[in-house]
């Protein structure tokens, strides 16, 4: 068996921890490159230089200046001219595309009417930078629709470039639902993007109508999603978000690799935010964290209560519509408590505020981001609820199991790939899984969990099963390396 090749990999995304993190993508852009570096690969990241990045904490040096990303005719004021900065810590290198107009004047990462132009600018900036950089990646991992223009540019505008034509592209789908600055279900014929026309010269407003997700899928050498089940689900009309036909055409290049979690950060044995630390041999200590959790949320302090936790963005995708149809009756009829941490739709917040008024000793709520509270829930709650309508991967169920909180999940996407339904007869399984997206199915799963919770030997067994799962990024990184090998081979065959 030959020696494994070491790859040079550039991840391109709209966010990356520790510099800027809005959602799960930011965490993946920190953890996956780190895991690949641990395997000996040269993995780097490139994102925009946002005004919110703390440059005192994250020191940067100028790597390239004066990149002209538009023409003198389309950009007479030179607002598209950009620089690239570099942050290097212990040999770990990250790049930042600096542009005053499109990044540094903006208070947020997302949410602007010209976002598509901002992401096309990033894609163009990455490629123009690589043309002059001394470091050339073997493969670019372009993440979600924001970076979907990179495979497009490489295939058309830079097809004959002597430097860039050799770079392989992997398009990584973290959530198929988001494809551009429009609702994919309401695109009129005039605005429909077939995905095959060249990208207009920046900053033409026609770019605002482009579908970055479609173009990434269409042009990339290989496509991956963040769980095996999700990669199959999106081939169906039901879950394909109007791209199922294209995905089926390219399904020979479509793969799914389950995300991992940072097991160093999420570690109940060392986590400083817990009331008491523990491991798989000392899970009885979780009771003390339950008492701390109850105190934190102002509900009745009682170690025998069945505590369900929610750590989630509150929206339709996460299954809140079926949850709010059944949770009141569950609380009313079973001796249980509920704690919630999350941001999102006001209609759900209002529901839980009313539920809190109705059951002040049983319901605790916190409707803003907090680094510490999710970990308290994972360490102190008995179960976590994830009744998602769809879920490309999901990290909460893995983080919860790492701490011994038992997940109640719908059998969909990454939830199906990471949680095994518990069988009391065999003692195998890590959670409670239901299939139909309706409040009755969720109720049955929660009642099953409630009943087994009161059978202490069984409950200890399921906690042990959950906490011993391996969701480290090292496992996922090995799978990505195999995919990189395939993608590079396919690209070489294409350019022969």
From TrEMBL:
Q: Which reaction does it catalyse?
A: [(1->4)-alpha-D-glucosyl](n) + ADP-alpha-D-glucose = [(1->4)-alpha-D-glucosyl](n+1) + ADP + H(+)
What EC designation does it have? 2.4.1.21
Residue positions annotated to bind ADP-alpha-D-glucose are 21
Keyword field contains Thylakoid: no
The membrane spanning regions, by residue number, are none
Pfam families documented for this protein: Glyco_transf_5, Glycos_transf_1
Q: Which residues form the Glycosyl transferase family domain?
A: 297-466
Pinpoint the Starch synthase catalytic domain residues: 8-249
Catalytic class of the enzyme? transferase
GO MF, one annotated term: alpha-1,4-glucan glucosyltransferase (UDP-glucose donor) activity
State the similarity comment. Belongs to the glycosyltransferase 1 family. Bacterial/plant glycogen synthase subfamily.
Q: Which HAMAP family match?
A: Glycogen_synth (MF_00484)
Q: What is this protein called?
A: Glycogen synthase
Task: Look up and give the organism this protein is from.
Answer: Candidatus Yanofskybacteria bacterium CG10_big_fil_rev_8_21_14_0_10_37_15
């Amino acid at each position: 068996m030959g020696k494994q090749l070491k790859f040079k990999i550039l991840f391109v995304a709209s966010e990356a921890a520790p510099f800027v993190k809005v959602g799960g993508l930011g965490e993946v852009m920190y953890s996956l490159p780190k895991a690949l570096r641990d395997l000996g690969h040269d993995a780097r990241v490139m994102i925009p230089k946002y005004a919110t990045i703390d440059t005192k904490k994250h020191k940067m040096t100028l790597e390239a200046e004066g990149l002209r990303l538009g023409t003198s005719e389309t950009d007479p004021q030179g607002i598209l001219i950009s620089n690239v900065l570099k942050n290097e810590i212990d040999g770990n290198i990250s790049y930042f595309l600096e542009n005053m107009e499109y990044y540094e004047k903006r208070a947020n990462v997302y949410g602007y009417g010209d976002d598509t132009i901002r992401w096309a600018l990033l894609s163009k900036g990455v490629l123009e930078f690589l043309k002059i950089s001394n470091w050339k990646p073997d493969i670019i991992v372009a993440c979600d629709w924001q970076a979907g223009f990179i495979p497009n540019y490489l295939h058309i505008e830079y097809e004959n470039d002597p430097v860039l034509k050799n770079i392989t592209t992997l398009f990584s789908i973290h959530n198929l639902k988001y494809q551009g600055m429009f609702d994919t279900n309401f695109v009129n014929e005039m605005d429909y993007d077939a995905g095959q026309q060249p990208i207009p010269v920046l900053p033409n407003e026609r770019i605002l109508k482009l579908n970055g997700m479609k173009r990434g899928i269409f042009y990339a050498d290989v496509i991956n999603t963040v769980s095996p089940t999700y990669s199959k689900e999106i081939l169906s009309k039901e879950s394909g978000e109007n791209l199922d036909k294209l995905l089926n055409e390219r399904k020979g290049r479509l793969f799914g690799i389950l995300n991992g979690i940072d097991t160093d950060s999420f570690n109940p044995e060392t986590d400083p935010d817990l009331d008491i630390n523990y491991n798989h041999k000392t899970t009885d200590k979780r009771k003390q964290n339950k008492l701390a959790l109850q105190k934190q949320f102002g509900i009745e302090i009682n170690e025998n209560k069945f505590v369900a936790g929610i750590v989630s963005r509150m929206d339709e995708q996460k299954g809140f519509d079926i949850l709010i149809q059944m949770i009141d009756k569950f609380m009313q009829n079973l001796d249980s408590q509920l704690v919630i941490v999350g941001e999102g739709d006001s209609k759900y917040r209002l529901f839980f505020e009313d539920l809190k008024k109705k059951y002040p000793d049983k319901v605790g709520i916190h409707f803003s981001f907090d680094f510490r509270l999710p970990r308290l829930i994972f360490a102190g709650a008995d179960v976590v609820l994830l009744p998602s309508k769809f879920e490309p991967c999901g990290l909460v169920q893995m983080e919860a199991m790492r701490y011994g909180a038992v997940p109640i999940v719908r059998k969909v996407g990454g939830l199906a790939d990471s949680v095994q339904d518990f069988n009391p007869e065999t003692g195998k399984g890590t959670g409670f899984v239901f299939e139909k997206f309706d409040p009755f199915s969720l109720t049955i799963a929660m009642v099953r969990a409630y009943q087994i919770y009161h059978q202490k030997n069984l409950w200890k067994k399921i906690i042990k099963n959950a906490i011993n799962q391996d969701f480290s990024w090292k496992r996922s990184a090995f799978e990505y390396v195999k995919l990189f090998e395939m993608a590079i081979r396919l690209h070489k065959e294409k350019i022969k």
